[in-house]
Amino acid sequence: MMHCLERQFCEKRDAISFFIAKHILPKRYSEYFGTVHFNRILNNQARSEYSPIIEQMNSFVPRMMSRKIPEANIQQAFVLDTVYKFIKSKRQPKILCVGSFEDTAAASLKMMGYSIEEIDPVLNYDLNTYFHLSTTDKSSFDIIFSTSVIEHVPDDETFISQIAELLAPDGVGILTFDYKNDYKHGDKLPQTNIRFYTKKDIMERLLPSAKGCTLVDDPQWDDYTSDFIYDDCHYTFATLTFQKKI
User: Tens of pLDDT along 119-171?
Assistant: First the structure.
């Protein structure tokens, strides 16, 4: 009972903070100005590069960040900065977060004053359910982002194809996921994972599923090091950033 009351209190407190950020005093954000690769490995070098972004996230949503694995925060830092780079010139960007529950990138963007449509099975819908709602507008989102969700989705090709269909022309999809380039079917996985991704998997299955979309830059998925350990599994993270053709 106490745990439930504490959670309700935290949710109300966060809602008040997000309201203040959106309507009263949005947080200022300083983007990463180094060399940017949008399709890459998120390794220890990336952690160093994006450390100023992670520091800003700690100031935006400190309580939520305190509940995270520090080495995994690179994913949300990359997503936050990449979303910002693609929307900063847009007046009222339409943004969808797939898997928004406890997502620090989504929470940080809200603290910066951005409106985000959020879906998550814990809150409302999974992507497939949302996609088939009569109220869902296809080809309408400027940005769709999803942090470390797709490796838990049984039908990942449909997941990618639905994101592509929801994007407006010139819209951008931004994903991160667990990556292990020497992964083979049957290898040990974290308990909640369905798979690790490999470069071959991305190129031969995921990209063809994003119909009408192309990568925003040349991929750099070969510089692979297993520098993250979770559930006795050694792996890393990678990103997939694609844009819908006009």
Answer: 999 999 999 999 999 999 999 999 999 999 999 999 999 999 999 999 999 99
pTM for this model (two decimals): 0.89
Q: Which tens digit of pLDDT belongs to each residue from 34-58? A: 788 999 999 999 999 999 999 999 9
Task: Please give the C-alpha separations between residue 82 and each of 50, 115, 216, 227, 236, in angstroms, as whole numbers.
Answer: 11, 16, 11, 22, 19
- Full set of structural domains in the chain with CATH: 39-244 (3.40.50.150)
List, in sequence order, every beta strand (DSSP E) within the chain.
Answer: 41-42, 95-98, 117-119, 141-147, 167-179, 213-215, 228-230, 233-244
Q: What DSSP string describes 51-105?
A: HHHHHHHHHHSHHHHHTS-GGGHHHHHHHHHHHHHHHTT-SS--EEEES-TT-HH
Query: The tokens 């940005």 sit on which residue?
Result: 143
The secondary element (H helix, E strand) that includes residue 13 is helix 2-23
